[in-house]
Amino acid sequence: MAFRSAVITFPGSNCDRDLAVALEKVSGTPALRVWHGDAELPERLDFIGVPGGFSYGDYLRCGAIASRSPIMRAVIEAAERGVPVLGVCNGFQVLTESGLLPGALMRNAQLTFTCRTAPLRVENSQSLFTGGYEQGQEIMLPVAHHDGNYFADEDTLDRIEGEGRVAFRYLDTCNGSRRDIAGILNHAGNVLGMMPHPERAIESDHGGSDGRALFESAVKGLVAA
Amino acid sequence: MKVRIHVSLKPGVLDPQGRAVHHALEGLGFSGVEDVRVGRLIELEVADSTSEAELEDMCRKLLANTVIENFRIETMETA
């Protein structure tokens, strides 16, 4: 069966095409494109991508308005049924605002927009999204954000660390994130939110390919399942 | 009626913007400022029949992110 993925587009999304291209390059099947105002997702999805950008102009709080849009109700339902959901950058903010992932993303501690290639460590190589990496592998992925400073209270941080839900950690101080957290999984392991952009690193001719394994893991994991 | 929603960061949550404003105040020569926290004020014009419970619901579901923010509802007297 062909891999069926969908990428959501909100007004102000700007990484939706990159995410769709990455999914198509890795899976061989074009990703379906879904508009935020749609109330329903296509049927039988294997993967949902919530892209980066500045949905709704970052009004109120980053991701706040998008997380209450009609399509997000469907995404939350699908996530609860176990459909894999990846949120990148603004997509991570949307997933925390929607309650699918714990914590919140605040203004970078240094207050400036940070745009560079960041070194990361893979902290959990057992998940659906990270099975293609080695445990502890160091990778380079682009980051480009103003509000990537991950915050959660100490109890929540201890819990997600204890459950192995920190997927990626920054190797240097990137944005003030608590415990240098760059990406986290939900309890069931089918939802990943991360500030770095794996979809911008799938071809060595275009700034590196360290993000490719993430999509390959997801596609392989689902085809095998 | 007019309602003001005051949204502020919870105690213990670091406020990078507040810190920058603090530095800027010091740069302007204002001494004795011990701390600065930046919040948000949202003004609503709502039907007089709107209940306190509905306003709280609005705050919890959208206007504040209760992971990091507290809110206070201030109902203004209608003239």
From TrEMBL, chain A:
Active-site residues, Swiss-Prot/TrEMBL: 89 (nucleophile), 197, 199
PROSITE patterns documented for this protein: GATASE_TYPE_1 (PS51273)
Subcellular location: Cytoplasm
Keywords associated with the record: ATP-binding, Cytoplasm, Glutamine amidotransferase, Hydrolase, Ligase, Nucleotide-binding, Purine biosynthesis
SUPFAM superfamilies named in the record: Class I glutamine amidotransferase-like
BP terms from Gene Ontology: 'de novo' IMP biosynthetic process
EC number: 6.3.5.3, 3.5.1.2
One cellular component term from this protein's GO annotations in UniProt: cytoplasm
GO molecular function: ATP binding; glutaminase activity; phosphoribosylformylglycinamidine synthase activity
Protein task: Part of the phosphoribosylformylglycinamidine synthase complex involved in the purines biosynthetic pathway. Catalyzes the ATP-dependent conversion of formylglycinamide ribonucleotide (FGAR) and glutamine to yield formylglycinamidine ribonucleotide (FGAM) and glutamate. The FGAM synthase complex is composed of three subunits. PurQ produces an ammonia molecule by converting glutamine to glutamate. PurL transfers the ammonia molecule to FGAR to form FGAM in an ATP-dependent manner.
Protein name: Phosphoribosylformylglycinamidine synthase subunit PurQ
Originating species: Pelagerythrobacter aerophilus
TrEMBL record, chain B:
Pathways involved: Purine metabolism; IMP biosynthesis via de novo pathway; 5-amino-1-(5-phospho-D-ribosyl)imidazole from N(2)-formyl-N(1)-(5-phospho-D-ribosyl)glycinamide: step 1/2
EC top class, as a word: ligase
CC annotations in GO: cytoplasm
Keyword list, A-Z: ATP-binding, Cytoplasm, Ligase, Nucleotide-binding, Purine biosynthesis
Example of a GO biological process term: 'de novo' IMP biosynthetic process
Catalytic activity entry: N(2)-formyl-N(1)-(5-phospho-beta-D-ribosyl)glycinamide + L-glutamine + ATP + H2O = 2-formamido-N(1)-(5-O-phospho-beta-D-ribosyl)acetamidine + L-glutamate + ADP + phosphate + H(+)
Keyword Protease belongs to the record: no
EC number(s) per entry: 6.3.5.3
InterPro entries: PurS, PurS-like_sf
Subcellular location: Cytoplasm
Principal location class: cytoplasm
Keyword Transmembrane among UniProt keywords: no
Oligomer and partners: Part of the FGAM synthase complex composed of 1 PurL, 1 PurQ and 2 PurS subunits.
Database matches in PANTHER family: PHOSPHORIBOSYLFORMYLGLYCINAMIDINE SYNTHASE SUBUNIT PURS (PTHR34696)
Function summary: Part of the phosphoribosylformylglycinamidine synthase complex involved in the purines biosynthetic pathway. Catalyzes the ATP-dependent conversion of formylglycinamide ribonucleotide (FGAR) and glutamine to yield formylglycinamidine ribonucleotide (FGAM) and glutamate. The FGAM synthase complex is composed of three subunits. PurQ produces an ammonia molecule by converting glutamine to glutamate. PurL transfers the ammonia molecule to FGAR to form FGAM in an ATP-dependent manner.
Similarity field: Belongs to the PurS family.
The protein's name in its UniProt record: Phosphoribosylformylglycinamidine synthase subunit PurS
Organism whose genome encodes this protein: Pelagerythrobacter aerophilus
Lineage per the UniProt record: Bacteria, Pseudomonadati, Pseudomonadota, Alphaproteobacteria, Sphingomonadales
Gene: purS
